[in-house]
Amino acid sequence: MEANAEDEIILSSLPIERGFGTPGMCLFQEFWCPSTLVKGLNIFHKQFQAKESDIFVASFPKSGTTWLKAITFAIVNRQSFSSIDNHPLLTSNPHQLVPHVEMVCRGDLDCSSIEPRVFGPHTPVPSLPNSIMECNSKIIYICRNPFDIFVSAWIFFDKVKPESLTSLKIEEAFEMYCNGIIEFGPWWSHMLGYWKESLAKPDKVLFLKYEDLKDDANFQVKRIAEFLGFPFTQEEENNQVIESIVKLCSFEEMKNLEVNKSGIVFQSVENKSFFRKGESRDWVNYFSPSMTEKLSQIMEEKFGESGDIF
Ligand code: PAP
Fold this sequence. Notes:
Blueprint: H1 3-12, E1 16-17, E2 25-28, E3 31-34, H2 38-47, E4 55-59, H3 65-76, H4 94-97, H5 101-106, E5 118-119, H6 130-134, E6 138-143, H7 146-160, H8 170-178, H9 187-200, E7 205-209, H10 210-215, H11 217-228, H12 234-238, H13 241-248, H14 251-255, H15 258-262, E8 264-265, E9 269-270, H16 289-303
Parallel strand pairs: 4-5, 4-6, 6-7
Antiparallel strand pairs: 1-2, 2-3, 8-9
The site of 3'-phosphate-adenosine-5'-diphosphate has 20 residues, from helix 3, helix 7 and helix 14.
């Protein structure tokens, strides 16, 4: 069967909802997938051939993907770009250097032939291709406080949605979020899937938190490099290579680059929309007491038995 015919059959048989920024999302393999990505996801799931050296920067949207893509790219390519002055991150958005793997599979983005290849999936664990799980490729997952994810997502998707789609009021978006209805949601099963995988296979999956990166980026960058098999030498540490990567990838530096003020990725998304505040706990400026109570309850219910995920 041709891919298009197969896509149509899949799409027509799936439940559909509007997303935060997408007119139609399908419940595809138990998560909400923008219908425009079903084709890419299906190809990714069934045909993607991972290489041993591949690195996957996985995340639920708005958890710190852009930041971790930049850090990972800078760590693994530091021998090629030892001079920070002409580093690709100064002239390209991290999403151009570390492509959205579902879009690569859909045929919209090129993937680098340089190894290690670094990709950014938003796909939850159960829908990852077997080839990723069966080889020695590495997955780094970035998780963020669900309160901050909600605010970041509500604001981001409102900016990038098609003009024909009405804006969601915060109460409407919150209701959807609490029901797991958001691009790549439910967010709790996304996080739990990678959390459990990181506990079962600590050499395969590194589970990071946005808040920990904010607290001590130097320590986390060192930890990521060791996990990926690209540890810093003593000489590099003495030469402040870790600090220079942290600075290059910092919110303030990246937000103020010309490419991130004026460029576009994924055909129509402004690079600047990926850099808003870059802070933890901005949610306190948006949540009412009843929203706080409701989301806290959901987190207790979903994560209560999962130890210290938060
Ligand atoms: P994506 O999943 O669509 O790629 P993602 O990068 O995960 O988005 O999320 C963007 C959030 O990361 C924004 O958070 P905010 O809305 O709360 O501000 C953005 O500001 C933040 N962000 C982007 N780059 C950095 C960075 N270098 N350091 C810290 N936070 C960052």
